[in-house]
Write a structure and sequence with these properties.
five-stranded mixed β-sheet, 699 residues, globular, 2 helices, mainly beta, five-stranded antiparallel β-sheet
Length: 699
């Protein structure tokens, strides 16, 4: 509601306070928020307080379970357009040539089957909270995906019947993890192995406790010739690893290129100066031996070119990688160096951090790199998988990498050279007022496309439901440093807009090459970053989203306090929409359309909540029929949009919010097209939790 409510209406304010569930970013107990999808009146519920329960599934429309393993399988099917062989997509485009579901019939989509993992927790009773964020892959009529607890599950792709499960035995306690997720697995076929042999097709999973495990695709049993007993310990050989810290993890699926399995890492990068190295490594897919490694922070020269004594780590690649097989390139997005918000001990631009990096896939040799943020002080990781596309412009076709940044900018980079396709300006930005901090004087800002989110927040921009709410926000902003994007963190507090979740988060992009469009979802929330001298208190915040987190940044002169800029009514101080879906014309760099994504109606009874949009984690899927499917928002919906206009054509209720990216496939040639999404919510964001994998199809 954009109009204000006068302070003479206390009943209205009381009603807001009593009926409004706090904004989805706030941590809250959620045992009662685990919701089961009603399936012909036979929905199932996970155990109370998020404790795991046995596997359950529900088949619709007469579907029947298949055998646990396809008996006597003689030959691996060739990967086809009907399969989904990579958890995201190898080129980061999140696109499918399938087009049975069209704008004309999408409204008839129905739930075909639902599978429940039993792996869900709200973070109570000493069990880590969960986020079911996985995108399955589908090959050989089988879906493969991980649960938040790291179990790998194989399902019949037609019926949703369970074929096998594998449990790596990850410690699920809050002391060990605090938050658990895994976004996908990878697969590899050994071309030299007999097709009937053990582990001829492998499922590869990188676990939260930093192990790379190879499984036989038919049975889910370990491939014993891989590493030691079927696994590689990824903590071995990593600089700055400490045995008393659990700050080196894996959350994204491995990337397979020829006979290599390439992995990055997820690092808690604001708890200490010398975080673990963000090394990227390639292992032999047959035996697990290290083939090559690439360190992102090898060159830590300061701006004058002289070598400095630099203490830092991270700059890790925690999102998915993309592969250009024709050019033998693996395209890697890197994150911020440690610690996130205090850079005095890592002077200079910290080259190759916060960058898009192209490595020779077979050797790990650096081909080119382009930095999107210099000397990051805002936790502006390159969180999204880069997308590969061909841009037709001025009569020429240019192969590009499209990189989505937390800053809200899209960068189009020539795939051969790394040079920008559209002009990028080095814009002067505010200087730091913190002693010992050498913030970069300029930052790269694309001229085209324009920023997809607002990049400044002044007291005059303050927003609130009531006049008192708006006045509070205005005064709060006025007391902080707020000079636009890239205002450095400060001792009095700095407005970071966009905040530390973006901009564009990890969900990635969807590329419609036929129509020349790239689609992404954005977040529009402001944060506050406050440096605290000698702050060794508090606990590391990790990568989860909460109302407020304190991190010591051990070894740095300052700790940090991070919080969202919210009003007393626990709504953002910046105007909605707080989440959008945006389409950009790849040839011109112009925004084709923009619409709010998601609703806050699951969190409040206010009518205007349908227009506010929602914070979103997860990404879009685009199909050849011109449909964009996306969950991602905090409400419990899966939606379909017209890729040309942004018109919402369909939505369906889910049992929980879908902080995951959907995928699509046909299980058999000529069979029905399925749209599948994980609906599991996010324990640290306050959304409704679940453990559901939901498959939709036409009747």
């Amino acid at each position: 509601m954009r109009s204000s409510t006068p302070p003479t209406q206390p009943r209205r304010v009381r009603r807001l306070l009593s009926s409004m569930i706090p904004l989805a970013i706030i941590c809250m107990p959620l045992a009662d928020a685990i919701v089961a999808l009603p399936l012909n009146g036979r929905g199932v519920r996970a155990g109370d307080r998020g404790l795991p329960v046995g596997n359950t599934r529900q088949l619709l429309n007469g579907g029947a379970p298949s055998d646990i393993v396809a008996a006597g399988a003689k030959r691996w099917a060739q990967t086809s357009a009907e399969e989904w062989p990579v958890a995201g997509s190898l080129d980061g485009s999140h696109g499918s040539p399938l087009g049975d579901v069209t704008p004309a019939n999408v409204h008839t989509l129905q739930v075909r089957w639902v599978y429940r993992t039993g792996d869900v927790s709200n973070g109570q009773d000493s069990i880590s909270g969960t986020g079911f964020q996985a995108t399955p892959l589908m090959v050989d009529r089988t879906l493969y995906f991980p649960t938040p607890f790291g179990r790998v599950i194989a399902l019949d792709a037609e019926t949703g019947a369970e074929r096998w499960t594998f449990d790596p035995g990850i410690d699920r306690s809050i002391n060990a993890q605090r938050f658990m997720t895994s976004r996908g697995v990878a697969t590899w076929v050994d071309p030299a192995a007999p097709i009937e042999s053990w582990c001829a097709r492998r499922i590869l999973v990188a676990t939260l406790d930093a192990r790379l495990i190879a499984l036989d695709a038919r049975t889910g049993r370990r491939c014993r010739g891989f590493g030691t007993g079927g696994e590689v310990n990824l903590r071995h050989g990593v600089r700055n690893i400490r045995p008393d810290r659990n700050d080196y993890r894996q959350t994204s699926p491995p990337t397979v290129v020829q006979d290599l399995v390439i992995v990055g890492s997820s690092i808690i990068d604001n708890s200490r100066v010398e975080s673990p190295s963000g090394v990227v490594r390639a292992f032999d897919a047959r035996n697990g031996r290290l083939r090559w490694s690439w360190e992102p922070l090898v060159d830590l020269a300061d701006t004058s070119g002289s070598e400095s004594a630099v203490r830092s780590g991270a700059a890790n690649a925690w999102s998915s990688f993309s592969v250009d097989t024709a050019r033998n390139l693996v395209i890697i997005p890197t994150g911020s160096p440690s610690p996130d918000h205090s850079g005095g001990l890592r002077p200079g631009p910290n080259r190759h951090a916060n960058s898009v990096v192209a490595l020779e896939a077979t050797t790990g040799a650096l081909v080119w790199a382009y930095q999107l943020v210099h000397h990051d002080l805002w936790d502006y990781d390159i969180a999204s998988q880069p997308a590969l596309a061909d841009v037709r412009r001025d009569g020429q076709v240019t192969p590009v990498v499209i990189a989505a940044a937390k800053t809200g900018s899209l960068f189009f980079l020539d795939r051969n050279t790394g040079r920008p396709l559209f002009p990028v300006e080095e814009v002067r930005v505010p200087a730091s007022d913190v002693p010992g901090e050498g913030a970069s004087a300029t930052q790269p800002v694309p001229v085209l496309p324009p920023p997809l989110v607002p990049t400044s927040l002044t007291p005059d921009d303050a927003w609130g439901i009531t006049a008192l709410d708006r006045l509070w926000c205005r005064d709060r902003i006025a007391g902080l440093r707020s000079e636009g994007i890239f205002t450095p963190p400060s001792l009095r507090g700095t407005v970071a807009f966009p905040g530390f979740i973006g901009g564009m988060a990890w969900g990635g992009l969807a590329v419609d090459s036929r129509r020349g469009l790239v689609v992404t979802n954005t977040n529009r929330l402001a944060g506050i970053i406050t440096l605290v001298p000698n702050a060794g208190r508090g606990q590391g915040s990790g990568s989860t989203i909460q109302l407020r987190t304190d991190s010591p940044q051990e070894g740095a002169p300052y700790g940090v306090r991070r919080e969202l800029l919210l009003s007393p009514l626990r709504l953002p101080c910046n105007a909605p929409p707080w989440g959008t879906l945006v389409a950009v014309d790849m040839a011109t760099g112009s925004v084709r359309w923009e619409v709010p994504l998601g609703s806050m109606r699951d969190l409040t009874t206010l009518a205007d909540a349908t227009e506010w949009g929602s914070v979103s984690l997860g990404g879009p899927l685009v199909t050849s029929a011109g449909l964009v499917f996306i969950g991602a928002s905090m409400d419990r919906r899966l939606r379909a949009f017209d890729v040309l206009t942004g018109e919402q054509l369909w939505s369906a209720a889910l049992p929980a919010s879908a902080q995951a990216t959907p995928m699509t496939y046909r299980a058999t040639p000529g069979g029905r097209q399925y749209i599948v999404v994980a609906a599991g919510g996010h324990a640290m964001m306050g959304s409704a939790l679940g453990d559901h994998l939901v498959a939709f199809a036409l009747p």
